[in-house]
Design a protein that fits this description.
about 240 residues; mainly alpha; Multidrug-efflux Transporter Regulator, Chain: A, Domain 2; 3 domains; about 5% strand
């Protein structure tokens, strides 16, 4: 049973040895299914009201099993259905009320509405401009600035890849530390180079006449993307001399 962020027993401070989990423990639990999860991401979801852990008298977060289950639901709806946080919150509230929740089919999305993909294969999920702004909690001026530095870009039909929501949220979060969009151009350039390397590797598979081989190219692309992300993170940690939990 999911627990709503507001109300309910057990909120506020908690006594030691209560069987609750630290944020580091929660990170390790979720990493099995979500390898890219970070403490910053968990804190961001908390700041958005999607989970409300208890606090010790000294202010440390303590998560219950229900909190971890709720985080898993949020992350799955982001990963598998490309839903913005506003829609995820509405789904969670409906689930708490015992109401049936109909998640959109995988495929194209525009302004929150699922659009069936073509019969030729899966199509990347998309969202509209207004939905992107709402999900990121940003204004038109901020979006224009992100676009000017190439951090997000509309597709040919004016919609955005659903991953733009994640990019926008992270840009906003970095902004809280004084890191401005103009500072992120080097990261965008590095990401483009990494993507180009992956494309080089899978290009022969994508051009193959055999449909199964072309389908294998998509799986290989995802695998390589995951590896490059992990390598990039490890190199950054090594350069900074830090070790994340």
């Amino acid at each position: 049973m999911l627990r709503t962020p507001s109300g309910g027993a057990g909120h506020g401070t908690t006594a030691p040895d209560s069987g609750l989990m630290s944020i580091g423990t929660v990170l390790n639990v979720l990493r099995d299914e979500f390898p890219d999860i970070t403490i910053s991401k968990i804190r961001f979801l908390e700041s958005e009201g999607l989970v409300e852990p208890q606090r010790t008298p000294s202010g440390y977060r303590k998560f219950s099993a229900e909190d971890v289950e709720r985080l898993g639901h949020v992350l799955r709806m982001q990963r598998d259905h490309y839903l913005p946080l506003k829609v995820i919150r509405e789904h969670l509230e409906a689930m708490e009320r015992g109401e049936p929740v109909q998640l959109p089919a995988l495929g194209r999305q525009r302004d929150g509405q699922a659009v069936p993909g073509s019969a030729e294969g899966p199509t990347a999920a998309r969202i509209g401009r207004a939905e992107l702004l709402a999900a990121a909690g940003a204004g038109e001026q901020e979006l224009q600035e992100w676009e000017s530095y190439g951090l997000v870009a509309p597709l040919e039909d004016g919609a955005y890849d659903a991953e733009a929501v994640t990019v926008a949220s992270l840009v906003i979060e970095l902004g809280r530390f004084g890191i401005e969009p103009r500072h992120l151009r080097a990261m965008k350039a590095a990401a483009d180079r990494e993507a180009g390397l992956v494309e080089q590797v899978v290009a022969p598979l994508k051009r193959h006449r055999n449909p199964q081989t072309r389908a294998h190219a998509e799986a290989r692309t995802k695998e390589l993307a995951g590896l490059t992300v992990k390598l990039h993170a490890a190199l950054v940690r090594t350069a900074l001399g830090v070790r994340l939990p």
